[in-house]
Design goal:
Blueprint (H helix, E strand, L loop, with lengths): L4 E5 L6 H11 L4 E5 L12 H12 L22 H34 L3 E5 L2 H10 L8 H12 L6 E6 L2 H8 L4 H14 L6 E5 L4 H26 L1
Parallel strand pairs: 1-3, 1-4, 2-3, 4-5
Length: about 240
């Protein structure tokens, strides 16, 4: 019996990983955990090419990358010199190729788990992680690689069966993690609510509640989603 996927999303400090892990321990359904976000050092599934790239970067002194998406305004603009711009574009397309391969690899593993009868719990998801960068319209034109990536995520890459957004004000997130600024966190909060309109099944949970209450709300949403799918499975059978 094919099951479904559930993405638990939200800014850093909203409690995604904790709730996702606890759901795997407490749901009365077989589950699998998959990190489906942008941080390679937080991943539990990874292509050999991605592992190699991370190993090279670490040998060169790069710190561990365990954070979520950066502020889109911090991304470097393309060089103006034609030759440098061409080299920069080529490098971006190579990086996009590996990134897309990584994303589809994890999605392929997800399909395998679902066909084996597991609910797949996503810690993060690429669609909200890259929404502000590659998907949402911006005043300035995006580079080719980002436009291609955004189109793939919006129109081709599968969205989770259910997406649960853990919502909290910027001041709460800052108090918990102390990362970013209130302005950036509020912008990201608005982006989550905006992109939620593009997801078929999107639910919001108040992440300022006690952890056990957040967990109970998430469990109720997942079990209700599972129950509403059951009649269609029986009819098809």
């Amino acid at each position: 019996m094919r099951m479904f996927s559930v993405a638990v999303v939200g800014p850093d400090g909203s409690g995604k990983t904790t709730i996702c892990r606890r759901l795997g321990e407490s749901l009365p359904l077989p589950t699998r955990y998959v990190y489906m976000g942008v941080s390679p050092d937080s991943s539990n599934l990874m292509l050999p090419t991605t592992r190699l790239l991370r190993a090279v970067k670490r040998r060169l002194g790069a710190p561990p990358d365990t954070h979520g998406p950066r502020d889109p305004r911090s991304l470097r603009a393309a060089p103006r010199h034609p030759l440098r711009r061409a080299l920069w574009t080529g490098k971006s397309l190579l990086a996009l190729t590996n990134r897309a391969a990584e994303e589809w690899f994890r999605q392929g593993v997800t399909w395998y788990y679902q066909w084996r009868g597991h609910v797949v719990l996503f810690d993060r998801h690429y669609f909200p992680d890259y929404y502000s960068y590659d998907i949402a319209p911006t005043a300035e034109p995006k580079p080719l690689a980002r436009r291609l990536h955004g189109a793939m995520l919006r129109h081709v890459f599968p969205k989770p069966g259910l997406m649960i957004y853990l919502d909290a004000p910027a001041e709460v997130l800052l108090a918990r993690k102390g990362e970013g600024t209130a302005e950036v966190l509020e912008e990201r909060r608005r982006a989550y609510l905006e992109m939620g309109q593009m997801v078929p099944h999107f639910a919001v949970i108040d992440a300022t509640q006690p952890e056990d209450k957040v967990l109970a709300d998430a469990q109720a949403l997942i079990l209700d989603f599972h129950a509403r799918r059951a009649p269609s499975r029986r009819t098809t059978a």
